[in-house]
């Protein structure tokens, strides 16, 4: 199996070249095009329990499975949001937490499930009460709104990250939800509000754009219906 990002840096799509018998799985509706000898099907990946859990993370109940049947083939996979795509390499020992709607595709030996957060993190982290946990061995591809940028936090150090810019982080990294500035007044007047304070060592992926901020920016330009 081979993969690459094509289509430019601004709006990339993910191209897979599959050998006969190989398969990938992707979020529902992610397939753009595929060669004629690939087979597309919808499955409850991981069984009924995991499929129901995915609904709480913003992902779909059924996932796409694309398999090369009768020869080699290729397919293009795209994200619904205008943003980047990056690869999480899993060796079977490390798990990742991904923002809701952040999973795009993976190789067949990668597993995705829902993980419940505490009430505080569910209310104020910006990710909701359920987030995505990715495990297994292989490649998982995550998507974002804007470009994806990795931040490596050294052991013992902390990093404050705006909760609207989080994409993924190593599952064993502790973090707490806190105010975005030194005081609550400054947090509110600066527009930051709540943020997530991560403690290293570990890697965090952020997105360069905040979808909530974009929504506030766009709102004045949306025509309101007249009574």
Summarize the entry for a quick read.
By secondary structure, the chain is mainly beta. It has 4 helices and 18 strands. A hairpin with a 6-residue loop joins strand 1 and strand 2 (13-18).
Give descriptors for this structure.
single chain, 227 residues, mainly beta, Double-stranded beta-helix, eleven-stranded antiparallel β-sheet, four-stranded antiparallel β-sheet, 4 helices, 13% helix, 46% strand, globular
Q: Name the CATH architecture.
A: 4-Layer Sandwich
What is the number of beta strands? Answer: 18
Largest sheet: 11 strands, antiparallel
Helix content: 10-25%
Overall description:
The chain contains 4 helices and 18 strands. It has 227 residues and is mainly beta. The chain has a single domain, classed as Double-stranded beta-helix (4-Layer Sandwich). A hairpin with a 6-residue loop joins strand 1 and strand 2. It starts with a strand and ends in a 9-residue tail after the last helix. The strands form 3 sheets. Strands 3, 5, 6, 8, 9, 10, 11, 12, 13, 15 and 18 form an 11-stranded antiparallel sheet that branches. Strands 1-2-7-4 form a 4-stranded antiparallel sheet, with no helix packed on it. The radius of gyration is 19 Å and the shape is globular.
């Amino acid at each position: 199996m081979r993969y690459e990002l094509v289509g430019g840096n601004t709006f990339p799509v993910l191209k897979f070249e599959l050998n006969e018998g190989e398969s990938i799985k992707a979020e529902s509706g992610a397939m753009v095009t595929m060669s004629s000898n690939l087979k597309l099907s919808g499955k409850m990946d991981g069984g009924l329990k995991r499929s129901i859990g995915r609904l709480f993370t913003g992902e779909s109940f059924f996932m796409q499975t694309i398999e090369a049947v009768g020869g080699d083939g290729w397919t293009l996979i795209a994200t619904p949001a205008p943003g980047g795509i990056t690869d999480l390499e899993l060796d079977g020992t490390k798990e990742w937490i991904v923002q809701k709607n952040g999973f795009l595709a993976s190789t067949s030996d990668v597993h995705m499930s829902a993980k419940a957060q505490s009430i505080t993190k569910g209310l104020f982290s910006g990710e909701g009460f359920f987030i995505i946990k990715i495990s297994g061995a292989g490649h998982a591809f995550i998507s974002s709104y804007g470009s994806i940028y990795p931040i490596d936090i050294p052991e013992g150090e902390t990093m404050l990250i705006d909760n609207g810019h989080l994409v993924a982080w190593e599952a064993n990294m502790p973090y707490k939800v806190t105010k975005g500035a030194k005081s609550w007044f400054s947090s509110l007047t600066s527009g930051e509000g709540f943020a997530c304070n991560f403690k290293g060592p570990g890697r965090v992926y952020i997105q360069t754009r905040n979808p909530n901020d974009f929504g506030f920016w766009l709102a004045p330009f949306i025509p309101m219906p007249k009574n």
